[in-house]
Amino acid sequence: MNLFAGVTNAKSPVVRLRDLIRNFEQAGNLVQVLKGLSFEVYPGEFVAVQGSSGSGKSTLLQILGLLDRASSGLYELLGRDVSRLDDDELSALRADTTGFVFQNFYLIPYATALENVLLPGLYSGKSQKRARERAEFLLESVGLGDRRDFLPARLSGGQQQRVAMARALFNEPALILADEPTGQLDSGTSSDILDLLGRFNREGQTIIMVTHDSQTASRAGRRILITDGIIESDELL
Ligand SMILES: Nc1ncnc2c1ncn2[C@@H]1O[C@H](COP(=O)(O)OP(=O)(O)OP(=O)(O)O)[C@@H](O)[C@H]1O
Ligand SMILES: [Mg+2]
User: Fold this and answer.
1) Nearest to 131 by CA among 168, 176, 171, 100
2) What letters, b where the CB count within 10 A reaches 16 and e where it falls short, cover 21-58?
3) Does residue 78 contact residue 51 with C-beta atoms inside 8 Å?
4) Helices 157-169 + 187-202 axis angle, to 10
5) At 152, which CATH number?
6) Do the domain assignments include residue 176?
7) CA–centroid distance for 234 within its chain
8) Which atom of ligand 1 is nearest to the CA of 31?
9) Would you say the CB of residue 53 lies under 6 angstroms from ligand 1?
């Protein structure tokens, strides 16, 4: 008997996938994009999902972020089988538990840095004062305390991504999902953004990042390599 069997799995996973499949209809044909993925992500992990263009990374991230549903298989987020939830319940769970960072930042162009960080607070039930204090704290923590009243167009790409990262943290999500977060940035700025993700992770934040780039993936603590919708390898770094 392995006395430690229960110890290594003492924490319950943030994410649990079993035989996850996603099919799309393309020109009348059913195409299987995710072909049965199974893995767990535990609290405090920083996981990179690496694969070439078209391998299904964004498809996977959309499902993990409750923006899309699997065709079959199990997805449990924080122990909840999400296939049992209706769209309103999915939206509520998404707002409560996930924060997104995208390649294109997706900031609201006519809102200031501070207002962009505040956006998730519109639904959080926080008082306006507390929400503003939290947004100011987060902007400070990503090094943009002096840019709070700037519109996105007046910020550099790296600064825009830092605003997006502060916004992603607003509701203290159990899980940060990042899709090619450095895809638009030069190598020096990319390194700064990955440093920041690493810092969030050291502070306890669970992160899943997808990227086609092995150097970017190597900044995570674990790499899951996907080829053509199948897990090819899953290694600690
Ligand atoms: N809504 C959709 N309808 C039909 N096919 C889709 C849909 N979304 C994605 N696909 C297909 O699924 C495959 C994987 O797409 P996905 O965007 O997940 O790839 P990716 O790994 O993120 O690629 P990239 O590195 O270029 O971002 C592609 O062949 C794409 O055409
Ligand atoms: Mg993609």
Assistant:
1) 171
2) ebeeeeeeeeeebbbebebebbeebbbbbbbeeebbbb
3) no
4) 20
5) 3.40.50.300
6) yes
7) 18
8) 5
9) yes
Question: Which residues lie near ion ligand 2 (Cβ < 5 Å)?
Answer: 58
Range of 153's domain? 7-236
Distance, CA of 40 to CA of 8 (rounded, Å): 13
Count of structural domains, the chain: 1
CA dihedral sign of residues 62, 65, 67, 69: positive
Hey, what are 144's tokens? 């943009």
Q: Which atom of ligand 1 is nearest to the CA of 55?
A: 21
Burial class (CB in 10 A: 0-12, 13-18, 19+), 9: exposed
Per-residue pLDDT reduced to its tens digit, 79-109: 999 999 999 999 999 999 999 999 999 999 9
137 neighbors 214 (Cβ within 8 angstroms): no
Band of residue 118 on the pLDDT scale cut at 50, 70, 90 = very high
Q: How far apart are CA 33 and CA 228, in angstroms?
A: 7
Q: Flag whether 165 is in a domain.
A: yes
Q: How far is the CA of 228 from the centre of ligand 1 (A)?
A: 11
Tokens of 212: 């086609």
What is the per-residue pLDDT across 163-212, written as a single tens digit (0 to 9) for each?
A: 999 999 999 999 999 999 999 999 999 999 999 999 999 999 999 999 99
Assigned domain for 2 exists: no
Residue 66 lies in a domain: yes
Q: Is the CB of 212 under 6 A from ligand 1?
A: yes
For the record, the structure tokens of 29 come out as 């044909």
